[in-house]
Automatic annotation (TrEMBL):
The lineage of its organism: Bacteria, Bacillati, Bacillota, Bacilli, Bacillales. Keywords: Cell shape, Membrane, Transmembrane, Transmembrane helix. InterPro entries: FtsW/RodA. This is Rod shape-determining protein RodA. Its main location: membrane. It comes from Bacillus salacetis.
Amino acid sequence: MQMETRQRFSDKIDWGLIFLLFLFFIVSTIAISSAQQTGQYAGYNFVLRQAFWYVVGFILIGFALLFDPDQYKRLAWYAYGFGIFLLGVLAVAPASIAPERNGAKSWFELPGIGSIQPSEFMKTFLILAIARVISSHHENNPKKTLKTDFMLLVKIGVVTMIPLGLIMLQPDLGTSLVIIAIVSGLILVSGITWKLIVPIFTGVAAIGTSILALVVYAPQLLEKYLGVKQYQFGRIYSWLDPYNYQKEEGYHLVNSLKAIGSGQVIGKGYQDKQVYIPENHTDFIFSVIGEEFGFIGASIVISLFFLLIYHLTKTALDIKEPFSAYVCAGVISMITFHVFQNIGMTIQLLPITGIPLPFISYGGSALMGNMLALGLVFSMRFYHKNYMFSSDDS
């Protein structure tokens, strides 16, 4: 027997998550205010802009609370279709509204608004779509077999390949990797048998390792048979041996290592950085934190992310409704990969891919995309029903 317990409005709000977001806002404004002191940013007030985007982000969270999980499940395909539409328009849009930056066509330039990156929102829309695919598949196939699991993999693959293909055409390697991480995380929690998951993940890992080995030891084969130019391997070479490429592709990484290393234990102090890193208010904001606040400051930031991921994981485990749990799992996968990749690339653990540090790096689209994703988690928890005398308590 189950009896639903009534909760006050304030009890259904995830105040712990709000407090964590407030702490990230403090860290972000402190780090960005120091980063913008670099000469190239004279006259810009990125802190004020970041504060504005945080306000917009909290409005998005409030808007997300207007819909319950059942409504999100019904709206999932509309959101997915809207995201595909934006990516398609971006691909054919003229340079006047979709200029190319650093060799990629990933942004709309809107008068009075600024740059909008559709792929940042597509990540959240894809989470909704795949969560619906998995939950609906299990509802329609209560008896699991190898065939039904394989069909679920096919469905997930089809839904993923469309946005992934459009994003890779931009090209945007960083966001493409995030998409793959989201899908991988959802596959792992989807209930698909390991008889399918292990061979697929092993095969993907083997292909990735083989390509990396060819880039290092036999790049001429990739150039001959796949038409890849050797200059395109610059990021890999600069990752493996940055000091031999420090005047070219390895410039950011070498300076990032110098900045973080020179911060030592307690750092040089607020706004007392000495190592110059271009665009350090975006992708390399962790280098600023490491140099100015040292190992202690960097550890605090990493601990905040650990608390965030722990909190989101606990929320996902507390929710019994499958669709809501899958949505939470997708958000966890996205944020976890973002953090691991961004911090990893600043310390040479991973190649540089241009992925920002969630909730700390400057960027309106990235911040709003992440806040929208958390808005889904707020909604899933807000409408989650608690029961007395549930079967789980027996």
